[in-house]
Design goal:
The complex is a heterodimer of chains A (about 190) and B (about 425). Helices cover about 70% and strands about 0% of the residues of chain A. Chain A contains ten helices and no strands. The relative contact order of chain A is 0.10. Chain B has two domains: about 100-260, Sandwich (Jelly Rolls), CATH 2.60.120; about 280-425, Tetratricopeptide repeat domain (Serine Threonine Protein Phosphatase 5, Tetratricopeptide repeat). In chain B, strand 4 and strand 5 form a beta hairpin. Classes of the chains: A mainly alpha (about 190), B alpha+beta (about 425). The interface between A and B is large, with 69 and 55 residues.
Chain lengths: ~190, ~425
């Protein structure tokens, strides 16, 4: 299978054997992490959404204008799918999950880290899907404005306004989550 | 880049990284990869959109004949776009299709599917989803939509590999239990005789609705988990708010070795016939052998010695062995046994199935399903009996009764496996 994304896209459009597997193997690990960071780690639907992203990508492969941008295009689909899922969850209510993500964390994970991440997602649940997505992309994924704009299908100026709004809302809600506040204090003390 | 007031999230990023290190990412990747490659076989690729320059068009519009040609071209293009839109809409709303068996026979909604006693029967859907009915299993596809299908497992075991697509909607109903599926791979078993339900989930997650699943009546099952649950001895369909169902919650086991242990029909070492244990053979799924063993000791004598529960099993055995007459004989004897109210109701239900599926005597089938509902209105098979009653009345041509039953069904089971049929009857 070709090493570069441009050749991979052409292989996919030609329906070359092994191209679908190569697409998935090359990009799914990163896409899965983006999805998990947006929807939260406790959601077993992560696998379903990951599958969704790649099916949508395959269906729309002919629309990809610049094959070299395959990875960021996939991230854009992942953000769209994750936001759609968050909207649906808001409508029908959270599924009954037998356990929380943090409970699955391994014994080596510091308990305060587990609690902080749990609090982070409780806080993110109070943001809109749009704010939540840009917050995760900016502050957890470390994307710049151009990348955020591309992933969220926004202009750069809109992406900037949205990041500022998400950050501001995050800070307003922060005092309600002592575990998070404590972690920031730790950060300040370093 | 300066973005609002400074927010130093380094610590949080490290916490996130810590938690992420403890996550088994490969598990999710494996599951999604297998399903994606399965789905990819049926995904149509849209051709690459060509770049269209409008400059020559604008130049051409300046002259008369070219303007006419342009108008014609625009009209043709508009027709083409409209056709694509209509076709896309049709594709999106077209119901999925299915076929069965090695000969790929076209499947029909509502028709009973019965796998032979010795081999599985595959069911393939046009979206890539595939089911495999284990040997001696009875099931039917009761509804298909553009987003999925509802499968009713009457008896036996199904292995399901459901392809997850956007907004897909699949249900597997078994007795009073409903498995809500978006995309996943799992095995489900239902024993109508024992009123036991079992589910082993290999990938993804499903939600199971039904009795004995705690106060909410629903349970999420995740990959690697198994659910074993029984219908309560005294069924309670509508518990008071906040009131848990009486029966204990079935265990969720994560040990694959435990699979299959919980769903077993009780079998004695001997049935006293002196001709080998027909019960043992029946439990092993060797139905013709089991019936032959029961006949070997004299069928009437075997029936006389059998308990009401054993008679029920004998009736099912005879039915699977292809002898509805013997099945009816055993099941009618159950109804004559004093003190066996539950078994009598179950036999009414099974007699309804025989009349419907084996004899095509739909009026008689409707009467038997009504008997079941009268005798055990909150029984584990009440939902299925109510649905089968609609089917039987419709097939018998009694549309007035079918409408009445459909209306009652929707009031009680608005999302049940026969809800689609009921709506179709009420709003043809």
């Amino acid at each position: 299978m070709p090493d570069d994304d441009e050749a991979l896209v052409h292989a996919l459009l030609r329906r070359d054997p092994g191209a679908c597997a190569a697409l998935f193997d090359r990009h799914a690990p990163y896409v899965q992490r983006v999805i998990a960071r947006i929807i939260g780690y406790s959601e077993p639907e992560r696998t379903d959404l990951l599958h969704d992203v790649f099916v949508r990508a395959l269906e729309g492969m002919g629309d990809l204008k610049n094959p070299r941008m395959l990875k960021s295009w996939l991230v854009g689909i992942a953000v769209f799918v994750a936001k759609e899922w968050l909207r649906r969850r808001k409508r029908v209510g959270a599924p009954v999950a037998p356990e929380h993500a943090a409970d699955r964390a391994g014994p080596s994970t510091p308990p305060e880290a587990v609690e902080a991440v749990r609090s982070l997602y409780r806080l993110l649940d109070r943001l809109s899907e749009d704010d939540r997505a840009v917050f995760v992309l900016r502050f957890l994924e470390g994307m710049n404005l151009t990348e955020i704009a591309e992933a969220c299908n926004l202009s750069i100026s809109t992406a900037r306004r949205r990041v500022i709004r998400a950050e501001s809302r995050f800070q307003n809600l922060l005092p309600a989550y002592p575990a998070l506040v404590e972690r920031f204090k730790v950060g300040e003390g370093r | 880049m300066k973005l609002g007031p400074p927010l130093d999230l380094d610590v949080l990023r490290r916490d996130v990284a810590d938690v992420e290190r403890s996550i088994d990412w490969d598990e999710g990747l494996r599951g999604a990869r297998a399903r994606f490659l399965l789905a990819a076989r049926g995904v149509p690729l849209r051709p690459r959109a060509g770049r269209v320059s409008f400059a020559p068009w604008r130049a051409g519009l300046k002259s008369g004949p070219l303007r006419s040609a342009a108008r014609l071209a625009v009209a043709l293009a508009a027709t083409l776009v409209l056709s694509v839109v209509v076709w896309t809409g049709y594709r999106q709303h077209a119901r999925i299709r299915f076929d069965t068996g090695s000969e790929h026979a076209a499947g029909q909604v509502g028709v009973l599917l019965s796998s032979p006693g010795s081999e599985p029967l595959p069911i393939r859907f046009s979206d890539g989803t595939s089911l495999s009915m284990a040997a001696a299993t009875l099931a039917r596809v009761t509804e298909t939509t553009s987003r999925g299908a509802t499968v009713l497992l009457e008896e036996g075991s199904l292995s399901c590999a459901v392809v997850h697509r956007d907004a897909s909607r699949w249900q597997v109903a078994a007795g009073p239990y409903t498995v809500l599926v978006t995309g996943t791979r799992f095995d489900v078993r239902w024993s109508a005789a024992e009123q036991t339900f079992a589910l082993d989930l290999h990938e993804g997650s499903v939600t199971v609705l039904g009795p004995s699943l705690g106060a909410t009546g629903r349970r999420r099952v995740l990959a690697g988990e198994s659910l074993r649950v029984s219908v309560p001895a005294t069924p309670t369909e509508a518990p008071a708010p906040g009131q848990p169902l009486a029966a204990p919650l079935g265990p969720i086991a994560t040990n694959p070795a435990a699979r299959g242990d919980a769903v077993r029909i009780g079998v004695g070492d001997t049935d006293g016939t002196g001709h080998g244990s027909w019960k043992q053979l029946a439990v092993e799924g060797r139905y013709p052998d089991a019936l032959a063993a029961a006949e070997g000791g004299g069928f009437e004598a075997t029936c006389r010695r059998a308990s009401a529960a054993d008679l029920l099993l004998l009736g099912e055995t005879a039915r699977f062995a292809g002898s509805p007459a013997r099945a009816e004989q055993a099941l009618r004897l159950v109804r004559a046994r004093p003190g066996a109210k539950h078994e009598a109701a179950m036999s009414a239900f099974n007699l309804g199935r025989i009349e419907y599926d084996d004899r095509r005597n739909y009026s008689a089938a409707a009467r038997w399903f009504q008997s079941y509902l009268r005798e055990e209105p909150a029984g584990g098979l009440a939902r299925e009996a109510a649905g089968r009653l609609i089917e039987a009345q419709k097939a018998a041509g009694d549309m007035s009764a079918a409408r009445e039953s459909a209306s009652a069904y929707l009031a009680k089971y608005p999302a049940g496996p026969h809800a689609g049929l009921a709506r179709t009857i009420l709003n043809p």
